[in-house]
Each structure stands twice: as structure tokens, then as C-alpha cells.
Amino acid sequence: MGRRILVCSGVLLALMLAGYRTGFSQIALERVLNFIALQGKPVPASPAFLSEHDLQELAQMTPQQQAERLLERAINHYEGATELIAKHADSWRGSLELAGQLNTLITSALNANDLRVRAAAIEIHLAAYNVEKTAESVYSRIQILESGDGDRISALWVLGLLGNRGVEPERVLQTLLRYTRDSDASIRHWAVEGLAYLGTDAVVEPLVDIFRGDPSADIRERAACSLAQSGMLQESQRMKAVPAFLNLLEDATQDRTMHQWVLQALQDISGLRLGDDPAEWRRWYSTQAGAYQRLPR
């Protein structure tokens, strides 16, 4: 058996090398070798759903293992994974450790190009923090911020997550806005992150103002990223920031860094690469404006 494997491997290697030497086409490689190229549309390995075997395994796992398995499946768009996370997240509260694989998966999920996956990561994050989704959890974080005792950065982050899950979103908004004006840059930074994950219509205009005017370049960058790609804003909400970005693109007083951030934000929101000509971007936006409500200029 070992001899046959070596011979077959040798034939495969020779065929591939011949392909490189003779210009053997990628299509031919795909047909002859079942070669999977990196270009083109996704190629499913198997149907993306949780099998009976998956469900049986999950039942035997610890909460930590369940959260890891389901979040990995959610990131890979397995049908039913986010629903099971929603079903079990509250029961995992206090039994999860933000470390190792789970921490890595949460980071990946919070950057997924699917807001349901990001929401699943938020649910698991709150469970790992042992935070109940109640008004009392919001008030206790506000007390930490006002007293100055305890972890104020975590309090701002958790407020954003709670507000996103529908817990006291208006109170969360007002609290986060207050701390975007704090003298401590690290507090302002995490207030901006909280706004990004709160993800309501009401955070768009404040984030635009922060991008225009915060004295910290780091915080201005985070505000732009929050409007363009990160956090929990939906596409229609991100579009509301476009008029402000267009005005800034035309503003000759902006430095090169701000100009690049504006251009990157427009590219992320639109999915287009139109260069840095404001007229091209305005022409694009004029075709989109009817579908979205503009911010005041």
C-alpha cells in the first residue's frame, strides 16, 4: 500500500510540474486533479447545517465547548447555529471563560460580514462576562462610570452590548454620549466603541461629529471605522453618513490622513473603488440617495 501511494504521489507531482512547464491550464488542473483554485465563487465542502451527529455531540459538551463549537459554526454560516446560541446563551452565563479558542472566535465573529454572527458573538460575550440582560445591569455600569471605582472601560463596552440587545438603549445612548466628551482619551475611545455596538440610528450623527472633531487621531479613526464597517450598524444606517464623508472629501483643509480615512470609509460603505474624485462619488451617491434618508449637511 505504501508503494502505491508513493507511485501515485509521484504521478501527481509529475503532472503538476508538467502543467507548470507546458502552461497546463487551471481548468485542466481542476478537471484532471480536482484542483480547487483560490479564485472564483465559494465551493461548498458539504451542506452547511448542523447534523444529528453535531447535535448529539453538543449535548455531551461543556458550556465552553458548546459556545466554541456553535460560534465556529455560526462564523461558517451553518444553518441553525445562531438560533442555538440565542437559545443557550443565558444558560451559559457564568460558565464561560474569555480565553483561548473562545476569545479568538469572538474576535473573528465580531468582524464577520454578517450582523447575525456579530450579534451571536455579543450574546456569548455577555454570557462570558456573566452579565444579565436587565435594566439593573445597565444601571450598575452607569454607577461604575459615575463613581470612578471599578473597570470603567469594561463598563462602557458592556453598555454598548446591552443596548444592542435591546436593554435600555436610550439610557445607554445618553450615557455613552456623555463619555465621548471625557477628558481621558481612553474613556472616549471606549465610549465610541460602545456607540458602534449599540448600533441605533441615533449613533450615526454623533460618530460623524467625533470623526470631524475629536482631538485624538486614534479616536477619529475608530469613529470612521464604526461608521464604515465595524460595530453593529446596518448598511442603510452607514449610508446616512455618506453626505458628511462627501463634504469632507471635498474639504481642501483636511490633512492627508483624514482624506485617506474618508476615502476608505466611502469604499467600505459602497463596496466600490472610484478613486479620490469627489464628483465620481457624488454621482454614485445620487443614484442611491432615494433609498436612504440623508443626514442634515
What order do the helices and strands come in, and which of them pair?
Elements: H1 2-22, H2 26-33, H3 52-59, H4 63-75, H5 81-92, H6 100-110, H7 115-128, H8 135-147, H9 152-164, H10 169-179, H11 185-198, H12 204-213, H13 217-228, H14 235-239, H15 242-250, H16 256-270, H17 278-288
Residue share in helix:
55-70%
Beta-strand percent range: under 5%
- Low-pLDDT stretches are 1-8, 293-297
Q: Which class of secondary structure composition applies to the elements? A: mainly alpha
Order of helices and strands: HHHHHHHHHHHHHHHHH
**Mean pLDDT score, rounded?**
88
- Number of DSSP helices? 17
What is the makeup of the main sheet? Answer: none
Q: Choose one word for the global shape.
A: flat
Radius of gyration: 24 Å
Count of extended strands: 0
Q: Between the first and last Cα atoms, what is the distance in angstroms?
A: 74 Å
Question: Gist?
Answer:
By secondary structure, this protein is an all-alpha fold.
Account of the 3D structure:
The protein has 297 residues and is an all-alpha fold. Among the domains are: 59-128; 132-199, Leucine-rich Repeat Variant (Alpha Horseshoe), CATH 1.25.10; 242-297, no CATH class. The chain is built from 17 helices and no strands. It has helices spanning 2-22, 26-33, 52-59, 63-75, 81-92, 100-110, 115-128, 135-147, 152-164, 169-179, 185-198, 204-213, 217-228, 235-239, 242-250, 256-270, 278-288. The protein is flat. The chain starts with a helix and ends in a 9-residue tail after the last helix. Residues 1-8 and 293-297 have low confidence and may be disordered.
